[in-house]
Amino acid sequence: MRNNSSRPFYLIPYYLWIALFVIAPIALIVYYSFFDISGNLTFDNYKNFFSSVYLRLTLSSFWYAFLITVFTLIVAYPTAYWLTKTKHKQLWLLLIIIPSWINLLLKTYAFIGIFGLYGPANRFLKAIGIGEQQILFTDFSFIFVSVYIFIPFMILPIFNSLDKMNPALIDASRDLGASSWVTFRRVIFPLAINGVKSGIQAVFIPALSLFVITRLIAGNKVITLGTAIEQQFLVTQNWGMGSTIAVFLILFMIIIMMLTGQRDKGGMANGKIK
């Protein structure tokens, strides 16, 4: 019989990691949020966050994160479903995941060349008679590049949920006379909802704090919470206000994780009755 008294010793590295790289950074952010640019203790940073400027910034961040998540889900769900039906699904899945291994900055610069005035996108538009267009530094380019970058993170959890689904349930639905749409709406989608929730977490949360893409692709015409934090820390050197925005960003992330958390309270999961 294993001695459970020695178990906490195996958890020491885990607790140290959490303390040093999760709790300590958050504590420092909260600490600096109570100081102004001159180093004086103040609550003005929290008051300023609820001003019209930062409220509009927050709403804008949520709106763009929502659009990115929706378009990513629209592309990722049918792609993941198609992958589960292919013969070499693991190979296709690997080909989709491989681009996520490439450095984000490299992919961003690649799209600068693609969407530039003399890039392939504008050459194509010119060839079909539309003419050159300003594609860079627009909402379209920002959302398009963001969706491209986040697609693998949405496909993977949805694919795992769909791949684990019991095909007998789909066959039973069709045998009972359900149409393809009814089968999807009443059987497939509910059983794969945990994968969708995980994908939303993996896309919506980091989309709130984007700043590299907003700089290079949107040309600072799109300002998110991540961009605001970067400006406060690196441009205005107001660490207090930057930390305050970061505190609220962490709170938003926690709320989103709670709203999209997986709740398996009985019922059916992956085709098995609990």
Could you provide a short overview of the structure?
By secondary structure, the chain is mainly alpha-helical. 70% of the residues lie in helices and 1% in strands.
CATH first level: which class?
Mainly Alpha
* Gyration radius, rounded: 23 Å
In which order are the strands of the major sheet placed?
A: 1-2
CATH H level, superfamily name? MetI-like
What fraction, in percent, of the residue positions are helical?
over 70%
Amount of beta strand = under 5%
Which fold name corresponds to the CATH topology? Answer: MetI-like fold
Sheet having the most strands: 2 strands, antiparallel
Question: Number of helical segments?
Answer: 14
Domain unit count: 1
Corresponding CATH architecture:
Orthogonal Bundle
The backbone outline, from C-alpha atoms, is globular
Low-confidence runs: 265-274
| H/E topology pattern | HHHHHHHHHHHHHHEE
Q: How many beta strands in the DSSP annotation? A: 2
Structural class: mainly alpha
Euclidean distance between termini CA atoms:
30 Å
Mean pLDDT figure: 88
